[in-house]
Amino acid sequence: MAEAGDASGGWLARLSGLGSYVCSKMNYHEYCSHEYTGIHTALHGLLEEKEKVEQEHKARLQLIAAKEELVKRNEELEAEIQSLKRKLQASEASDTPAQGSGREHNQSGRVQITSVQKRKRQSEGHAGEDAEEHEAAEILCVMNSHEQGLSAELRDVREETSNINAELIKGFLDMGGVGRQNITVKYMGQLSERPFLLACLRKFLRKEAEAEASRLCKFWQEQLMNPEWYPFKCDTTGGISEETINDDDVKLQELRATWGEESYKALVKALVNSFLELKECGKLSDRTIVAQLWNFKEDRKATLSESVEYVCSKVKSLSNKNVRTSTCGY
């Protein structure tokens, strides 16, 4: 009795330790997810801001080019005007060319000074824009590095979560995880023998029906595991495409002819459910059955947190039972 108690106590301690480990890892996973989401959102906003700055920079360059073209055109017009003035003044007085040349020189000097000042302002503007772009590039580099680090951590956490899920499944199976429990193990893609038994009971006595149901379930499970068998067709109604069962499939036609319409519908429903389970697990291409923690009470996948809580409640229940047993034995 003492050895059994020690073994049970060790098993309970391991399960309790696993539960604490899972809870800590789930909290860490949640923290990393929030951190990753925040960084990703900030990076997305920064990229949008960078694109906006680049667009504004491009618009400024276009405006500068337009201004330069306008200044050039104005200078050409001014030169033509001055040339016409000189010609007019040359016909009126002989001293006009010298005065005109002086004015031209002064005007040219002003244009040169203005042009130099303009180029200086443009150069200073480009330098400021280059500094902003350089700073934005550095921030992006840091953000990308941080995001890559978080992505690596998330991959590690997902791998650990997968390992924990596998350990939980093993633990559920070790403590009789298949049966009437709120949370237990379900094999996704595996046919249930019950609809086949109900169909066979319509034609055979109980013992013969059980044997025939087992044979039928095994046969259709083999068909289901064959990647080349896909008894569905694409049905387009009202412009919406939807996959439906292909009643013209040879195997399904034989099933309907042998077992009748009522049994046919029940068995096809079971087959479709198994197909959907394989598709949900991403195993439709290789048709591999997958063990999954399942909440049978709500008919859905069980989360890690509720699975751990369920294990902890079982551990507590077994601990109390062992205490009562030890007390009675004493």
UniProtKB/TrEMBL annotation:
Residues 85-133 are annotated as: Disordered. Residues 122-133 have a biased composition (Basic and acidic residues). It holds the Pfam family XH. Residues 186-321 form the Factor of DNA methylation 1-5/IDN2 domain. InterPro entries: FDM1-5/IDN2, FDM1-5/IDN2_XH. GO terms for biological process: gene silencing by siRNA-directed DNA methylation. PANTHER family: FACTOR OF DNA METHYLATION 1-5_IDN2 DOMAIN-CONTAINING PROTEIN, RIBONUCLEASE P SUBUNIT P38. This is Factor of DNA methylation 1-5/IDN2 domain-containing protein. It comes from Aegilops tauschii subsp. strangulata.
